[in-house]
Amino acid sequence: MIQASELILNPDGSVYHLNLLPEHIANDIIFVGDQNRVEKITQFFDSIEFSTQKREFKTQTGIYKGKRITVMSTGIGPDNIDIVVNELDALVNIDLKTRQPKENLTSLNIIRIGTSGSLQEDIPVDSFVMSKFGLGLDNMLRSYLIDEVSNVAIEDAFIAHTNWDIRKGRPYVIACSEKLEKIIESDKIFKGITATAGGFYGPQGRVLRLNIQDEELNSKMDNFIFNENQITNLEMETAAIYGLSSLLGHNALSLNAIIANRASGTFSEDPYKAVDELITYTLNKLAGK
Protein backbone atom coordinates (compact mmCIF):
# COMPACT_ATOMS: atom_id res chain seq x y z
CA MET A 1 0.00 0.00 0.00
CA ILE A 2 1.24 3.48 -0.89
CA GLN A 3 1.50 5.48 2.33
CA ALA A 4 -0.52 8.66 2.94
CA SER A 5 2.68 10.69 3.17
CA GLU A 6 3.69 9.56 -0.36
CA LEU A 7 0.36 9.92 -2.16
CA ILE A 8 -1.38 12.83 -0.47
CA LEU A 9 -5.15 13.11 -0.93
CA ASN A 10 -7.57 15.89 -0.04
CA PRO A 11 -10.50 15.23 2.33
CA ASP A 12 -12.77 14.57 -0.67
CA GLY A 13 -10.38 11.91 -1.97
CA SER A 14 -8.95 14.02 -4.79
CA VAL A 15 -5.22 14.17 -5.53
CA TYR A 16 -3.55 16.87 -3.47
CA HIS A 17 -2.26 19.50 -5.90
CA LEU A 18 -4.57 19.05 -8.88
CA ASN A 19 -7.75 18.68 -6.80
CA LEU A 20 -9.05 16.03 -9.23
CA LEU A 21 -10.87 12.71 -9.02
CA PRO A 22 -10.47 10.02 -11.71
CA GLU A 23 -13.81 10.81 -13.36
CA HIS A 24 -12.77 14.43 -13.91
CA ILE A 25 -10.22 13.73 -16.65
CA ALA A 26 -10.29 12.37 -20.19
CA ASN A 27 -7.69 10.07 -21.71
CA ASP A 28 -6.65 12.86 -24.07
CA ILE A 29 -5.10 15.76 -22.16
CA ILE A 30 -3.71 19.07 -23.38
CA PHE A 31 -1.14 20.85 -21.23
CA VAL A 32 -0.66 24.61 -21.25
CA GLY A 33 1.62 26.60 -18.99
CA ASP A 34 -0.56 29.62 -18.28
CA GLN A 35 -3.84 29.09 -16.43
CA ASN A 36 -5.38 31.85 -18.54
CA ARG A 37 -4.69 29.81 -21.66
CA VAL A 38 -6.97 26.95 -20.58
CA GLU A 39 -10.07 28.82 -21.71
CA LYS A 40 -8.24 29.93 -24.86
CA ILE A 41 -8.58 26.25 -25.79
CA THR A 42 -11.90 25.29 -24.23
CA GLN A 43 -13.62 28.27 -25.89
CA PHE A 44 -13.64 26.06 -28.98
CA PHE A 45 -15.37 23.17 -27.14
CA ASP A 46 -19.01 22.26 -27.80
CA SER A 47 -19.56 21.82 -24.06
CA ILE A 48 -17.67 21.85 -20.76
CA GLU A 49 -18.63 19.27 -18.15
CA PHE A 50 -16.12 20.02 -15.40
CA SER A 51 -13.93 22.89 -14.24
CA THR A 52 -11.74 23.42 -11.20
CA GLN A 53 -8.64 25.26 -10.10
CA LYS A 54 -6.16 24.94 -7.25
CA ARG A 55 -3.10 27.18 -7.23
CA GLU A 56 -1.76 27.43 -10.81
CA PHE A 57 -3.36 24.12 -11.78
CA LYS A 58 -6.57 24.86 -13.67
CA THR A 59 -8.47 21.99 -15.31
CA GLN A 60 -11.43 21.89 -17.67
CA THR A 61 -12.89 18.79 -19.33
CA GLY A 62 -15.38 18.90 -22.17
CA ILE A 63 -16.36 17.78 -25.65
CA TYR A 64 -14.84 18.97 -28.93
CA LYS A 65 -16.50 17.57 -32.08
CA GLY A 66 -17.48 14.42 -30.22
CA LYS A 67 -14.10 13.93 -28.54
CA ARG A 68 -13.75 14.16 -24.76
CA ILE A 69 -10.65 16.22 -23.94
CA THR A 70 -9.13 17.66 -20.77
CA VAL A 71 -7.16 20.90 -20.77
CA MET A 72 -4.87 21.63 -17.83
CA SER A 73 -2.44 24.37 -16.87
CA THR A 74 0.82 23.14 -15.41
CA GLY A 75 2.47 26.39 -14.45
CA ILE A 76 6.12 26.95 -15.29
CA GLY A 77 9.03 24.55 -15.08
CA PRO A 78 10.06 20.90 -14.67
CA ASP A 79 9.24 20.86 -10.94
CA ASN A 80 5.58 21.53 -11.71
CA ILE A 81 5.62 18.83 -14.41
CA ASP A 82 6.80 16.37 -11.76
CA ILE A 83 3.65 17.12 -9.76
CA VAL A 84 1.22 17.13 -12.67
CA VAL A 85 2.28 13.95 -14.47
CA ASN A 86 2.66 11.91 -11.29
CA GLU A 87 -0.76 12.96 -10.00
CA LEU A 88 -2.43 12.34 -13.37
CA ASP A 89 -0.91 8.88 -13.44
CA ALA A 90 -2.18 8.26 -9.92
CA LEU A 91 -5.70 9.16 -11.05
CA VAL A 92 -5.76 6.43 -13.70
CA ASN A 93 -3.30 3.82 -12.43
CA ILE A 94 -3.66 3.79 -8.65
CA ASP A 95 -6.83 2.86 -6.77
CA LEU A 96 -7.13 5.93 -4.55
CA LYS A 97 -9.26 4.09 -1.98
CA THR A 98 -7.02 1.06 -1.46
CA ARG A 99 -3.83 2.95 -2.37
CA GLN A 100 -2.74 0.03 -4.52
CA PRO A 101 -1.46 0.23 -8.12
CA LYS A 102 -3.97 -1.22 -10.56
CA GLU A 103 -3.27 -4.45 -12.42
CA ASN A 104 -4.49 -3.05 -15.75
CA LEU A 105 -2.76 0.22 -16.51
CA THR A 106 -4.13 3.11 -18.55
CA SER A 107 -2.02 5.06 -21.02
CA LEU A 108 -2.88 8.74 -21.35
CA ASN A 109 -2.29 10.88 -24.43
CA ILE A 110 -0.65 14.14 -23.35
CA ILE A 111 -0.01 17.02 -25.75
CA ARG A 112 1.65 20.22 -24.65
CA ILE A 113 0.68 23.36 -26.53
CA GLY A 114 3.04 26.18 -25.77
CA THR A 115 4.86 29.21 -27.06
CA SER A 116 8.57 29.37 -27.52
CA GLY A 117 11.47 31.18 -29.10
CA SER A 118 13.31 29.57 -31.98
CA LEU A 119 17.08 29.18 -31.88
CA GLN A 120 17.32 28.66 -35.65
CA GLU A 121 17.02 31.56 -38.07
CA ASP A 122 15.28 29.36 -40.66
CA ILE A 123 12.39 28.60 -38.26
CA PRO A 124 10.43 31.86 -38.52
CA VAL A 125 8.03 33.44 -36.07
CA ASP A 126 4.42 32.22 -36.35
CA SER A 127 5.55 28.72 -37.41
CA PHE A 128 4.92 25.49 -35.46
CA VAL A 129 7.56 23.21 -33.96
CA MET A 130 7.11 19.58 -32.93
CA SER A 131 9.62 18.31 -30.39
CA LYS A 132 11.02 15.06 -31.80
CA PHE A 133 13.22 14.90 -28.72
CA GLY A 134 13.30 16.70 -25.39
CA LEU A 135 16.76 17.66 -24.13
CA GLY A 136 16.62 18.19 -20.39
CA LEU A 137 19.12 20.61 -18.87
CA ASP A 138 17.24 20.77 -15.58
CA ASN A 139 18.21 17.64 -13.53
CA MET A 140 14.66 16.94 -12.29
CA LEU A 141 14.32 13.65 -14.15
CA ARG A 142 17.66 12.43 -12.79
CA SER A 143 15.83 11.71 -9.53
CA TYR A 144 14.34 8.70 -11.36
CA LEU A 145 15.87 5.64 -13.06
CA ILE A 146 15.84 6.77 -16.68
CA ASP A 147 18.42 4.62 -18.48
CA GLU A 148 15.76 2.56 -20.27
CA VAL A 149 14.06 5.61 -21.82
CA SER A 150 16.92 8.06 -22.43
CA ASN A 151 18.99 8.46 -25.60
CA VAL A 152 22.58 8.22 -24.39
CA ALA A 153 24.07 8.77 -27.86
CA ILE A 154 22.51 12.23 -28.21
CA GLU A 155 23.40 13.05 -24.60
CA ASP A 156 27.06 12.18 -25.14
CA ALA A 157 27.21 14.12 -28.40
CA PHE A 158 25.67 17.20 -26.78
CA ILE A 159 28.02 17.05 -23.79
CA ALA A 160 31.05 16.82 -26.09
CA HIS A 161 29.84 19.54 -28.47
CA THR A 162 29.11 22.07 -25.72
CA ASN A 163 31.96 21.08 -23.40
CA TRP A 164 29.21 20.76 -20.80
CA ASP A 165 30.20 21.39 -17.19
CA ILE A 166 29.07 18.17 -15.51
CA ARG A 167 28.80 19.99 -12.18
CA LYS A 168 25.48 21.27 -13.53
CA GLY A 169 24.28 17.67 -13.89
CA ARG A 170 24.15 15.35 -16.89
CA PRO A 171 21.70 16.41 -19.64
CA TYR A 172 19.10 13.81 -20.61
CA VAL A 173 17.32 13.17 -23.91
CA ILE A 174 13.89 11.55 -24.33
CA ALA A 175 11.98 10.89 -27.55
CA CYS A 176 8.38 11.90 -28.20
CA SER A 177 5.55 9.41 -28.61
CA GLU A 178 5.64 7.93 -32.12
CA LYS A 179 1.89 7.33 -31.88
CA LEU A 180 1.09 11.01 -31.29
CA GLU A 181 3.72 12.15 -33.77
CA LYS A 182 1.91 10.27 -36.54
CA ILE A 183 -1.46 11.75 -35.53
CA ILE A 184 -0.29 15.37 -35.36
CA GLU A 185 2.48 15.73 -37.94
CA SER A 186 2.17 17.64 -41.22
CA ASP A 187 4.47 19.16 -43.82
CA LYS A 188 3.96 22.56 -42.21
CA ILE A 189 5.43 21.58 -38.83
CA PHE A 190 9.17 21.84 -38.15
CA LYS A 191 10.70 18.99 -36.14
CA GLY A 192 13.77 18.94 -33.97
CA ILE A 193 15.15 18.86 -30.46
CA THR A 194 13.56 21.05 -27.79
CA ALA A 195 15.88 22.03 -24.95
CA THR A 196 14.27 22.29 -21.53
CA ALA A 197 15.92 24.64 -19.04
CA GLY A 198 15.37 24.71 -15.31
CA GLY A 199 14.98 28.49 -15.25
CA PHE A 200 14.21 31.49 -17.45
CA TYR A 201 17.19 33.81 -17.00
CA GLY A 202 20.64 32.32 -16.42
CA PRO A 203 19.67 28.77 -17.44
CA GLN A 204 18.53 30.16 -20.81
CA GLY A 205 21.56 32.39 -21.28
CA ARG A 206 19.94 35.67 -20.25
CA VAL A 207 22.18 38.09 -18.40
CA LEU A 208 20.79 40.86 -16.20
CA ARG A 209 23.03 41.53 -13.19
CA LEU A 210 24.53 38.06 -12.76
CA ASN A 211 27.26 36.48 -14.86
CA ILE A 212 26.50 32.99 -16.11
CA GLN A 213 28.62 29.84 -16.19
CA ASP A 214 28.79 29.53 -19.99
CA GLU A 215 28.13 32.67 -22.01
CA GLU A 216 28.52 30.71 -25.28
CA LEU A 217 26.04 27.93 -24.51
CA ASN A 218 23.22 29.29 -26.67
CA SER A 219 25.49 29.64 -29.70
CA LYS A 220 26.81 26.12 -29.10
CA MET A 221 23.25 24.82 -29.02
CA ASP A 222 22.43 26.74 -32.21
CA ASN A 223 24.89 24.66 -34.24
CA PHE A 224 24.44 21.28 -32.55
CA ILE A 225 23.19 18.62 -34.97
CA PHE A 226 22.62 14.90 -34.37
CA ASN A 227 21.40 12.78 -37.29
CA GLU A 228 19.94 15.90 -38.96
CA ASN A 229 18.13 16.91 -35.76
CA GLN A 230 18.88 20.47 -34.64
CA ILE A 231 17.93 22.16 -31.40
CA THR A 232 14.95 24.15 -32.57
CA ASN A 233 13.82 25.93 -29.44
CA LEU A 234 14.35 26.45 -25.73
CA GLU A 235 11.66 26.33 -23.04
CA MET A 236 10.97 24.86 -19.58
CA GLU A 237 8.69 21.79 -19.70
CA THR A 238 9.02 19.42 -22.68
CA ALA A 239 11.86 17.09 -21.64
CA ALA A 240 10.30 16.60 -18.21
CA ILE A 241 6.94 15.72 -19.78
CA TYR A 242 8.57 13.26 -22.17
CA GLY A 243 10.65 11.63 -19.46
CA LEU A 244 7.92 11.06 -16.89
CA SER A 245 5.42 10.01 -19.55
CA SER A 246 7.85 7.46 -20.99
CA LEU A 247 8.64 6.05 -17.55
CA LEU A 248 4.95 5.76 -16.62
CA GLY A 249 3.74 4.40 -19.97
CA HIS A 250 1.94 7.47 -21.31
CA ASN A 251 2.17 9.06 -24.76
CA ALA A 252 3.49 12.62 -24.87
CA LEU A 253 4.06 15.20 -27.58
CA SER A 254 5.06 18.85 -27.34
CA LEU A 255 4.01 21.50 -29.87
CA ASN A 256 5.07 25.12 -29.84
CA ALA A 257 3.96 28.21 -31.68
CA ILE A 258 7.14 30.13 -32.38
CA ILE A 259 6.54 33.72 -31.29
CA ALA A 260 10.17 34.87 -31.18
CA ASN A 261 13.32 34.12 -33.12
CA ARG A 262 16.37 34.67 -30.96
CA ALA A 263 18.75 34.19 -33.89
CA SER A 264 17.24 37.03 -35.92
CA GLY A 265 15.97 39.09 -32.98
CA THR A 266 12.39 39.10 -34.28
CA PHE A 267 9.07 38.77 -32.45
CA SER A 268 5.65 37.86 -33.83
CA GLU A 269 3.43 40.80 -34.77
CA ASP A 270 0.38 38.79 -33.65
CA PRO A 271 1.40 35.98 -31.27
CA TYR A 272 -2.21 35.34 -30.22
CA LYS A 273 -3.18 34.44 -33.78
CA ALA A 274 -0.30 31.96 -34.04
CA VAL A 275 -1.32 30.29 -30.79
CA ASP A 276 -5.00 30.08 -31.82
CA GLU A 277 -4.04 28.47 -35.12
CA LEU A 278 -1.94 25.86 -33.32
CA ILE A 279 -4.80 25.19 -30.88
CA THR A 280 -7.43 24.58 -33.56
CA TYR A 281 -5.01 22.48 -35.62
CA THR A 282 -4.26 20.25 -32.62
CA LEU A 283 -7.90 19.92 -31.54
CA ASN A 284 -8.97 18.86 -35.02
CA LYS A 285 -6.21 16.26 -35.20
CA LEU A 286 -7.19 14.84 -31.81
CA ALA A 287 -10.83 14.70 -32.88
CA GLY A 288 -9.87 12.98 -36.13
CA LYS A 289 -11.14 15.87 -38.26
Automatic annotation (TrEMBL):
Residues 29-264 form the Nucleoside phosphorylase domain. GO terms for biological process: purine nucleoside catabolic process. It comes from the Bacteria. GO terms for molecular function: purine-nucleoside phosphorylase activity; uridine phosphorylase activity. GO terms for cellular component: cytosol. It catalyses: uridine + phosphate = alpha-D-ribose 1-phosphate + uracil. InterPro entries: Nucleoside_phosphorylase_d, Nucleoside_phosphorylase_sf. Its EC number is 2.4.2.3. PANTHER family: FI09636P-RELATED, URIDINE PHOSPHORYLASE. This is Uridine phosphorylase. It comes from Flavobacterium circumlabens.
